[in-house]
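[[Sequence with tokens]]
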Amino acid sequence: MPRHVLAAGAALMFSMIAEAQADSPLPPLVAVGSKVRLHSTQVGGRLRGIVAAVDEKQLTLAREDGAPAIVPLNTVTSMDMVVRRKRKTLKGLAIGTGIGVLLGFVIPEDSEDPLCEADGNSLCSRGEAVAIGMVSGALWGTGIGALIKGDVWAPVTLKPQQSPVASGHRKSGFALAFRLRF
């Protein structure tokens, strides 16, 4: 008898959870305060800004130029959201190295100076000038690139996904995920 009571209680609990999830409104597409860019048929172009408000029918966007924009969600054709900020260190390294190599060809070298080997202050060959230009340009470029950050964008699904319990479809199987961050 106690097993039947436990089974009936579990079935009742799961049916109440499924009913509560089916009645609850779906979560918004993006959170207030998220930086987004979107294309809308109402505006006829790309809008970019921070989400000020969102509901089931419209999205209010605080644009970068200061003017707010109210966009109906049914006119949005695509939307991207900033997921993180990324440093431009490698790009700075590449640009700095390239500029340094070019400057190495412009730096004057004095290969005919008799004190060239004894004096460490002058550049005795073009290769030495290019190497010094390349290393110094790479260091400057890496430092500047580490200070500059850019946005990493990800597409946002325009239609919210229902949970499997709320839609009546249950997925079976086992999932295991790991995340390793440095």
